[in-house]
UniProtKB/TrEMBL annotation:
Taxonomic superkingdom: Bacteria
Family: Belongs to the P-Pant transferase superfamily. Gsp/Sfp/HetI/AcpT family.
Family annotation (SUPFAM superfamilies): 4'-phosphopantetheinyl transferase
Species the sequence originates in: Cupriavidus metallidurans
UniProt xrefs under Gene3D superfamilies: 4'-phosphopantetheinyl transferase domain
A single GO cellular-component term on record: cytosol
Protein name: 4'-phosphopantetheinyl transferase superfamily protein
Lineage, uppermost ranks: Bacteria, Pseudomonadati, Pseudomonadota, Betaproteobacteria, Burkholderiales
Length: 231
């Protein structure tokens, strides 16, 4: 199963990308034109160029030969315009500040990244978005004496559930507040998701296939599952 990911800097990929008129579709250009904030437009362009670079390396062809859908309410799908790759490829793009991440695969995949920064009302957020089993598995969530470890644990679970939504679909509010998905630590060999750190950010990747071949030396494995209504 081809599954590849890459991380980088929004500023760097925006700078190295050719003029967008040479490689973006009309649909993408139209969406880009609606973005009033320069930072948001830069994130969009950098993410789309990173995705094309990763698609070319993983599946073949030139970066400019890959077309990405641009619907705002769904993850992009990639198609090789010359037909050399006969089926659509799943793509997930995430950014937070200058942090950028992308994953591509021949199965549904989701990636999320969050800049580590203090959150107001963290106690309330933890209580509202985590299950008893998650709090038992990550006792640092309740350890007020270690604010840094607590924040990392919270963002691990948050990014995992955002990655799950990107992979499988769903509503953010319902998934987080309704405890639709539960994430518990697992050996990488049994995991369907991983988290890891990049500088001052936490990243998570979820896939509908094993994730043990990514080669992330400091990754933590997780098993994500949909909870029954009776749980």
């Amino acid at each position: 199963m081809p599954l590849a990911l890459r991380t980088g800097s929004v500023m760097a990929f925006a700078a190295m990308a050719p003029p967008v008129s040479r490689w973006m579709s009309q649909e993408e250009l139209g969406r880009l034109a609606t973005m009033r904030a320069e930072a948001r437009a830069e994130q969009f362009a950098a993410g789309r160029w990173l995705a094309r670079r990763l698609l070319a390396v993983t599946f073949g062809g030139d970066a400019s030969e890959w077309a990405l859908s641009a619907a705002e309410d769904s993850p992009p799908l990639a198609i090789h315009t010359s037909g050399a790759v006969g089926v659509p490829v799943f793509v997930s793009i995430a950014h937070s500040g200058d942090h950028l991440a992308c994953a591509v695969a021949d199965v549904p995949v989701g990636i999320d990244i969050e800049h580590l920064q203090p959150r107001k009302h963290l106690d309330t957020l933890i209580e509202a978005t985590t299950t008893e089993a998650e709090r038992a598995a990550l006792p640092e969530l309740l350890r007020e004496s270690d604010a840094d470890a607590r924040l990392v644990a919270f963002f691990q679970l948050w990014t995992l559930k955002e990655a799950w939504i990107k992979c499988h679909g769903g509503n953010l509010f319902q998934t987080m507040m309704g405890h639709v998905v539960e994430a518990l630590p697992a050996p990488i060999s049994q995991a369907n998701a991983v988290t890891w750190r990049r500088d001052d950010a936490v990243l998570a990747l979820a896939a509908s296939a094993p994730v043990d071949g990514l080669g992330l030396p400091d990754a933590t494995g997780w098993r994500l599952r949909e909870r029954d209504a009776a749980d």
